[in-house]
Design a protein that fits this description.
There is one protein chain. The chain is of the alpha/beta class. It folds into two domains: 241 residues, 3-Layer(aba) Sandwich (Rossmann fold); 69 residues, Alpha-Beta Plaits (2-Layer Sandwich), CATH 3.30.70.1560. The chain has a six-stranded mixed β-sheet with strand order 6-7-8-3-9-10, with helices on both faces. β4 and β5 form a beta hairpin. α3 packs parallel to α5. The longest helix is centred in the middle third of the chain and has 16 residues. It is globular. The two termini are 40 Å apart. It holds the Pfam family ABC_tran.
Amino acid sequence: MNQTAAVPAAAPTLSVPALSVRDLRKTYDGGPNKAGVQALKGVSLDVAPGDFFALLGPNGAGKSTLIGIVSSLVNLSAGSVSIFGIDLARQRDAAMRMIGLVPQELNFNMFEKPLDILVNYAGFYGVPREEAIRRAEVELKRAHLWEKATMMSRTLSGGMKRRLMIARAMMTQPRLLILDEPTAGVDIEIRRGMWKTLKEINAAGTTIILTTHYLEEAESLCRNLAIIDRGRIVEQGPMKALLAKLDVEGFLLDIDGHLPPSLPVIEGTTLMAADDHTLDIEMPRAMDLNRVFASLNEAGIRVRSMRTKSNRLEELFVRLTGENAQDSTVQTTPEQVA
């Protein structure tokens, strides 16, 4: 078996972005006073070759419109898009050969077998059948679906169907894989299994752009991110650098025994009881932890262990989108942009 079939055919050129978007605008007809709804208001971003990139934003922010334009499913109103240096407007077919898309919705024939779904999909893109069968075996094995290759797809579990969507998209050996909410509606165990598959695809050289509502997912998988809100990019850059902007840290403290009914007041901190044995604390990054521990000890609270809270990205997201996250669904596009 030729295992190299799953690796993108051409190595990306580091000087050329995998995706370059410049001043992208989209206005849908209709809306208030028939003036149209502006889904994108001058979006610009670059995604480097080999990156695992997160695109985050509240409902109605413009994520799906942006993905739709990049994948040539939605016409742009203004601006430009290039895929590995290929202009989407001038060389659409060449640009589309670089892209694999995994949409939110399951959109394959449930009465077909996974092997047939993959082989037929590759055939639509001109891949010879013999080569398509070879690629299908590679992708189904990577998706842990080879044992299900000849079963009816409707018998697969929800997580298996999601992995089948990813395997299908990889049949054209795309250099850029776009995933729109790929783990929506699956439980955490299945989600983590899909993370492993996506990490393997990225490690093999495929650039990945991920939209997700699971902030833990973005923090676990992605190295860079952009946050879009009401049609504009409000922040973008390396994940670690953006998280470092937070001036507040959160910790969970495991306590010996039970917490007292009344918690001590420690200036500059917020204390809450997560349960009888766990203390939830938020404090400035610059605050000395020893002072916190000393104050807790004086109150008769002994800390057995501590761990960092996993909601740092969520906190950054809420802080950047601010009050707009509350009402950003008011002016939605005809697609109910996610």
